[in-house]
Design a protein that fits this description.
Chain B: This is phenylalanine--tRNA ligase. Chain B: Its main location: cytoplasm. Chain B: One of its GO terms (molecular function) is ATP binding. Chain B: One of its GO terms (biological process) is phenylalanyl-tRNA aminoacylation. The complex is a heterodimer of chains A (845) and B (528). With 845 residues, chain A is an alpha+beta fold. Chain A is built from 23 helices and 35 strands. In chain A, the strands form eight sheets. In chain A, strands 4, 5, 6, 7, 8, 11, 12, 13, 14, 15 and 16 form an eleven-stranded mixed sheet that branches. In chain A, strands 20-24-25-29-28-27-26 form a seven-stranded mixed sheet, with helices on both faces. In chain A, strands 33-34-32-35 form a four-stranded antiparallel sheet, with helices on one face. In chain A, a hairpin with a 5-residue loop joins strand 15 and strand 16. In chain A, helix 9 packs across helix 11 and helix 10 packs across helix 11. Chain B has 528 residues and is an alpha+beta fold. In chain B, the strands form five sheets. Chain B has a seven-stranded mixed sheet with strand order 9-13-14-18-17-16-15, with helices on both faces. In chain B, a hairpin with a 4-residue loop joins strand 16 and strand 17. Classes of the chains: A alpha+beta (845), B alpha+beta (528). Chains A and B meet through helix 9, helix 11, helix 12, strand 20 and strand 22 of A and helix 1, helix 12, strand 9, strand 10 and strand 11 of B.
Chain lengths: 845, 528
């Protein structure tokens, strides 16, 4: 928000009365300004440079007033006074007029085509017979500076040059030349410099060096000459000394050069509306002509008055007031928007003056009416919007977990999402390339290089900062980390993590392990292999060798725990052993009754933007192989896609932890982009798609996931080997045989070591769709699932209510060969009969 | 598995570092003087006129003084049985060496007596325990002499017939309690020789108390299961607790104060019927963070100095294409009743990925999704989550903070409605005096800063920002024309810092947090 400093006494003089500080503060508040500070020049200098420097400075009281960023008309004393006087009904808003020069041609500014390469636009105007005083002159300079800093975006969009017209003679030429070819005496310098010299001269100038990058790397620099070859300015850097204005200047030539013409027009309008007050004919501005390279001529300043019509009812309805049309017109007029009822119903015609470019919509007019009415005079009402509140399920789970983790004796920490690369990689004994971290392009310090991919470093730093606290330190945090994810529109996603550490004289693995057990208890997950949770030894460079375990829930890895590697401990400036646990929270969300909320927006329009650089370099996708059959099922069927979607729910790749030929093969088996409903599949699909250019370099697949086309079946033309058959009829024996063999092959390849044959007895609940489902048929289907290491046992029908019965069927499986998820997938594939499959009991034999 | 078992057994054997603390409010089962001494002492006090000295009592009863001191403490704990006044006196006592000297004679005397008439080789003498010290003292007393030229090494002979062991006599005097007979010089001399020591004795002057009695009932310290079982507690007297002492701190975990305040704000929104938005996406495209909100591409907030841009992944890949076109149009050409900003809107700028600068980016996504519904339904949304600014950091500003945001979308909402909702919201925070200042925000019109009167500072302070979303933002999304969306936002850190009296934000958020502050922070009740 820009701050304008005005001398209090001048302000009160112009306002025609004095105020106490409180009264003036109140007036500002009502009008939407803020009296930010009451100070003096002396005070400012003494604060910034010390008392000694301040001795000679002025004691005059200064008001520092915060002005809304879109109100360029309030950036100087003149504008502020005008706005407040009109608001207080003490003044009618002046009418700004553009006039032709008294006899003779208007000043002309000719733009050459060379400017197109650097700064293509220019506008100009003349303030004729102006009378400057020191105060007016200072304000004139100050307004240019304020405009430069705000709407002009530090001169990059627009740069203003003001010149003593009597020292130069038109027509003026705005052109662009090579830096070496521009030579002039810049403002307040004693000798001439070339533009190249100037750029190095101003490298060290505290004020001007900020503007150098705007044109620095351009081949040509913009420059304005008069008819005698005198340089007026080299925008946006500096004016020439020759045409500089002074207190004695009577006629001012104003030029604005720009990359944004709309803003240039606004800036010029601001300069002339604010200071034409001091012209011999107040509020008149002498026009200037701008000739474009194509010969077109425009007259500036525009000083356009725009008319809008709106209804009084619109204002009343939006603000929540009941005012007459006349009264609303009066309110608007007090905001410098001259308004009157048109007499047609409650219609009001509003005139938007050139000083109010911020008014671009009826809602802006409505706001002004509300300000004039007084925000604090509006009756406060309660909307009758009826809604039912829902919590975001992930936050709900997080809140509940936090409470119980604190109850488990751990103290909550809260660390930054941003950190250094070192924190998430080097210090943890990892490579930054392994982290999937997003990188920030403009960090001011190393603390903001990346978003964290793990919560652990934050907790370790918290311990390091609290070493004076009594041991043990038991800390936890549940927060989001950020990971790159190609399936997201922005290429990254948050992932909620639970992390805890135990810091003491002994490593306390059992404490952290106990916390894991407790957490699982809270999440209602039982300790068991298979559907429950278990931990098993893992290698991780962050942890002490042999002291790290991976946490599995339902065979999916959700995180790790262990004793930290001594090097990690030391790198975080700690001295004691430490054990830690970090795991994902999202897998525990389960299904909630509430609507699944996501910030992903539908991209239902299939047209995706063509981004030239990428799409051109991407070769056409290889032609589809003839088969769509995979171990997950037929990729041309819903069931097949669904199975693969489920498989990918917790995996990044079909196999292992990097993209491989296995991914490419399965990718090719999918005939068309998968529908958005299969979110995991879609994420994987677009990710693998991005590998198309380098797919040849992907590592080979370890297992075969795509099935070669089956030999033509003898009985029918149908050669579908639909693994988890979505077909209505019974599978052919041939298909069953093939499937059986594939599954066996797959299971065999999946098993890594020929360990002891561990077996489990499983009791499955298979639920039909309704009471009319043929349960005998259902059982037949279930029993038709044949896998190596699977032996079906007894079955019975159990009533579940409303006449519906579920099939409870037992089986014995070899753990290495048959997993419950595999089994469930196979059974749910009979989607005609089966609604769901649940594991009712799971016992190790 | 064996490995795990081994580790487990190690683990179970680990030392617990928790402090072992006894309950300070109880008397504890420490040196409780036995009843016999207590009663004997009481009988002495009864017989004595005016009182007895604890030292005298110890001597009289033939017990150590410490036992009497213990008895006094125990009696004091019983109430006003006795009154005891602490006195201190100095007196001389024999040291261990002094006691030995008093019994066996001084070192020099023992040297003298150990030398036979025919003399003793010096080497022999030095072998005796008192040899070295005794020899030099006896020499200076001229009791003995050394014949260095004696064949077979130096030999020692008596020089006098008999001696008087004055040192021993003096010590015996002290031992008998007649130290007063020695003068200061003599006493200091013996002190130097470490035979005597001056000790300060603290004793009690014990007199009858207001409820004096010579018999005492043994007081119990704590109620036991046996007492409850037998009912014996009815007959027992219990020692009083010291209620001045602090209790034992429970061994527990703690929630972070900022999160406690967040929980309360969530609660308030839920009480008001607001649904939580899914704000778990820190990375946002400039499109959703700025463009969709009708924030122009040259806006200073989109500058490198204010926003964190991403180098990887640098660009967003996917936008709803038709909506994107409508956003482009309203920025560059206007429409929907707007003049637009009239500049060259660039997709390249909108694709730039950033760390979201406000949660309003998610509100924009949610409103867009709302607009895609078949039929508009009114909604009330809220979120409290992290946002990121590449700003200059100071005691109250960090590069990331939590933004609290509330949004209501319905037909015909007014500015008065926004003020009403804000009034209700802030009333739940215990803030009732509100006023509104016109302000500017690129995506709301009208925009209002919310001020509340601070009773402590005696002035109005800004507590939040609010406004009505601009039609240029809502209409391109596809929301019905007569639907208004009101919204407000504030930071979570500021009210928390005020609530918990924290001046430096780094003590609250981030790893430099003061854990003691976390341990000690009270529960959060925003309205009190």
């Amino acid at each position: 928000m820009p701050t304008v400093g005005v001398k209090r006494d001048f302000l009160f003089n112009a306002l025609g009365r004095t105020y106490t500080d409180e009264e003036f503060d109140e007036l500002c508040f009502e009008f939407g300004l803020e009296l930010d500070e009451i100070t003096s020049e002396k005070e400012i200098i003494s604060r910034e440079q010390g008392d000694s420097k301040a001795s000679g400075a002025s004691d005059l009281i200064l008001y520092k007033i915060d002005v809304p960023a879109n109100r360029y008309d309030l950036l100087c004393l003149e504008g502020l006074v005008r706005g407040l006087q009109v608001f207080k009904n003490k003044l009618e808003a002046p009418r700004y007029r553009r006039v032709s020069p008294d006899g003779g041609e208007p000043q002309r500014l000719i733009i050459t085509k060379e400017t197109a390469a650097v700064r293509p636009h220019a506008v100009a105007a003349v303030l004729r017979n102006i009378t400057f005083t020191q105060e007016r002159y200072d304000s004139f300079i100050e307004l240019q500076e304020k405009l430069h800093q705000n709407i002009c975006r530090k001169r990059s969009l627009v740069a203003i040059g003001t010149h003593d017209l009597d020292t130069i003679s038109g027509p003026f030429t705005y052109t662009a030349k090579a830096p070496g070819d521009i030579c002039f005496r810049p403002l307040n310098q004693t000798k001439e410099y070339t533009a190249t010299q100037l750029m190095s001269l101003y490298k060290t100038d505290s004020h001007l060096r900020h503007y150098l990058p705007i044109i620095e790397d351009k081949l040509v620099y913009p420059v304005i000459y008069d008819s005698n070859g005198v340089v007026l300015s080299m925008p946006p850097i500096i004016n020439g000394d020759h045409s500089k204005i002074s207190l004695q200047t009577k006629n001012v030539f104003i030029e604005c050069t720009a990359t944004d013409l709309t803003k240039a027009k606004i800036v010029l309008d601001m300069m002339v509306t604010m200071f034409s007050e001091y012209c011999a004919q107040p509020f008149t501005v002498e026009q200037a002509e701008v000739v474009y390279p194509d010969g077109k001529t425009c007259v500036y300043p525009e000083l356009a008055y725009r008319k809008e019509k709106l209804s009084g009812e619109f204002i009343n309805r939006k603000v929540g007031i009941r005012e007459s049309t006349d009264r609303i017109a009066q309110l608007l007029t007090r905001m410098c928007l001259l308004s009157q009822p048109t007499g047609v119903g409650d219609e009001i015609e509003v005139e938007i003056p050139p000083t109010r470019p911020d008014v671009i919509h009826a809602c802006d007019i409505m706001e002004d009416a509300a300000i004039a009415y007084g925000f604090n005079n509006i009756t406060r009402t309660t909307p009758r919007t009826y809604t039912v509140a829902n919590q975001f399920p992930l936050n709900k789970l997080t809140e509940l977990l936090r409470q119980d983790l604190a109850a488990a004796g751990f103290t909550e920490a809260l660390n930054f999402a941003l950190c250094s690369q070192e924190d998430i990689a080097d210090k943890l004994g990892k490579k930054i390339s392994e982290t999937r971290a997003i990188h920030i392009s403009n960090p001011k310090t190393a603390e903001f290089q990346v978003a964290r991919t793990t919560v652990l470093p934050g907790l370790l730093k918290t311990v390091a900062a609290n070493r004076k606290m009594p041991l043990p330190l038991k800390l936890f945090e549940i927060s989001d980390v950020v990971l790159k994810d190609e399936s997201k529109d922005v290429g990254a996603r948050n992932s909620r993590r639970f992390c805890a550490i135990y810091y003491n004289k002994t490593p306390g693995f059992e404490v952290i392990h106990g916390l894991l057990d407790r957490t699982m208890q809270l999440l209602d997950v039982k300790p068991a292999r298979g559907e429950g949770y278990h931990i098993q030894a893992a290698d991780d460079s962050t942890f002490f060798p042999g002291r790290c375990a991976e946490i599995f829930v339902g065979r999916k890895s959700v995180g790790r725990l262990g004793v930290l590697h001594p090097d990690v401990v030391s790198r975080f400036e700690l001295t004691m052993p430490c054990s830690a646990l970090e795991m994902d929270v999202e897998p525990f969300l389960g299904f909630t009754a509430e609507v699944l909320l996501t910030h992903d927006v539908p991209m239902q329009e299939t047209f995706k933007h063509q981004f030239p650089a990428r799409s051109q370099s991407r070769p056409a996708l290889p032609s589809r192989p003839p088969t769509t059959k995979t171990v997950f099922g037929d990729m041309s069927s819903q069931a097949g896609l669904e199975a693969l979607d489920g498989f990918l729910a917790d995996r990044s790749y079909v196999e292992g932890f990097t993209a491989s030929q296995a991914d490419a093969a399965v990718f090719d088996a999918i005939p068309s982009p998968p529908p958005p409903a299969f979110c995991h599949l879609r994420r994987w699909w677009s990710h693998i798609k991005s590998f198309q250019t380098e797919r040849a370099r992907l590592p080979p697949a370890k297992s075969q996931f795509v099935l070669p086309p089956a030999p033509p079946a003898s009985d029918a033309g149908e050669d579908d080997v639909d693994l988890f058959g979505s077909d209505d009829e019974e599978e052919s024996t041939e298909a069953a045989r093939i499937r059986e063999q594939r599954l066996a092959d797959y299971a065999a390849k999946k098993s890594k070591k020929p360990a002891l044959v561990a077996k489990s007895s499983i009791l499955l609940d298979v639920k039909p769709w309704d009471d009319e489902t043929d349960m005998a048929k259902l059982e037949e289907c279930v029993r038709s699932v044949v896998m190596e290491g699977l032996l079906w046992g007894q079955a019975k029908l159990v009533p579940v209510g409303y006449g519906i019965r579920k099939l409870q069927i037992g089986c014995v499986v070899e753990d290495e060969k048959v997993g419950t998820d595999l089994l469930e997938e196979a059974i749910t594939a009979f989607e005609e009969y089966v609604q769901s499959v649940d594991v009712a009991a799971f016992n190790k034999i | 598995m064996a490995d795990v078992l081994a580790r487990r057994s190690c683990g179970l054997g680990h030392v617990r570092f928790e402090k072992t603390t006894s309950h300070p409010a109880s008397i504890g089962a420490s040196s409780m003087a036995d009843t016999g001494v207590l009663e004997a002492l009481l009988q002495r006090v009864e017989k004595a006129d005016g009182g007895v000295d604890s030292l005298a009592a110890a001597a009289g009863l033939g017990v150590d003084h410490q036992v009497i001191v213990g008895a006094v403490k125990s009696l004091q704990a019983l109430g006003d049985v006795i009154s005891a006044e602490l006195r201190s006196s100095k007196h001389w006592e024999l040291t261990e060496e002094g006691t030995e000297t008093a019994e066996q004679g001084s070192h020099e005397a023992r040297v003298f007596s150990s030398i036979p008439a025919e003399g003793l080789p010096q080497a022999e003498l030095m072998k005796l325990s008192f040899g070295k010290i005794g020899f030099s003292k006896a020499m200076s007393n001229n009791w003995i002499r050394v014949d260095k030229s004696h064949e077979g090494g130096p030999r020692i002979f008596r020089t006098v017939e008999s001696i008087q062991d004055q040192v021993r006599e003096k010590l015996l005097l002290v031992k008998r309690g007649d130290a007063a007979q020695l003068d200061e010089k003599e006493k200091n001399e013996l002190k130097k020789r470490k035979l005597l020591a001056e000790v300060t004795v603290k004793s009690y002057w014990i007199a009858k108390g207001s409820s004096f009695s010579t018999t005492i009932t043994k007081q119990e310290t704590e109620l036991t299961p046996e007492m409850i079982a037998t009912g014996s507690w009815k007959e027992k007297k219990f020692k009083p607790y010291n209620f001045e002492a602090m209790g034992v701190a429970p061994d527990c975990g703690h929630l972070h104060p900022l999160m406690k305040v967040r929980t309360q704000f969530r609660q308030i929104f839920l009480e008001m019927g607001f649904s939580e938005m899914p704000t778990n996406n820190f990375i946002e495209s400039s499109f959703w963070n700025f463009d969709s909100l009708f924030q122009p591409q040259q806006h200073p907030a989109r500058d490198q100095h204010d926003t964190f841009f991403l180098s990887d992944p640098a660009l967003a890949q996917e936008f709803p294409p038709e909506y994107l076109e409508r956003v482009k149009k309203v920025h560059s050409e206007g429409g929907y009743g707007s003049q637009g900003y009239k500049y060259d809107w660039k997709i390249e700028e909108a694709r730039k990925n950033i760390l979201r600068t406000h949660t309003t980016a998610v509100s924009a996504r949610m409103l867009y999704k709302l607009a895609q519904q078949e039929k508009f339904t009114p909604v009330k949304y809220f979120s409290i989550d992290r946002v990121f600014r590449n700003e200059t950091l100071d005691a109250t500003h960090l590069a990331e903070f939590h933004q609290i945001e509330g949004v209501v979308a319905d037909y015909g909402l007014t500015l008065g409605d926004l003020m009403g909702v804000l009034h209700q919201f802030f009333t739940k925070l215990g803030i009732t005096k509100l006023r509104f200042k016109p302000a500017y925000n690129p995506y709301t019109e009208p925009s209002m800063e919310v001020f509340s009167y601070h009773e402590g500072l005696k002035k109005w302070v800004e507590v939040g920002n609010s406004g009505v979303f601009r039609p240029e933002m809502l209409l391109p999304m596809g929301l019905p024309e007569d639907v208004s969306v009101i919204a407000w936002g504030l930071s979570l850190e500021r009210p928390t810092m005020i609530k918990y009296g924290i001046n430096n934000i780094r003590e609250l958020v981030g790893h430099k947090v003061n854990l003691q502050m976390v341990y000690d922070s009270p529960i959060c009740r925003l309205d009190s």
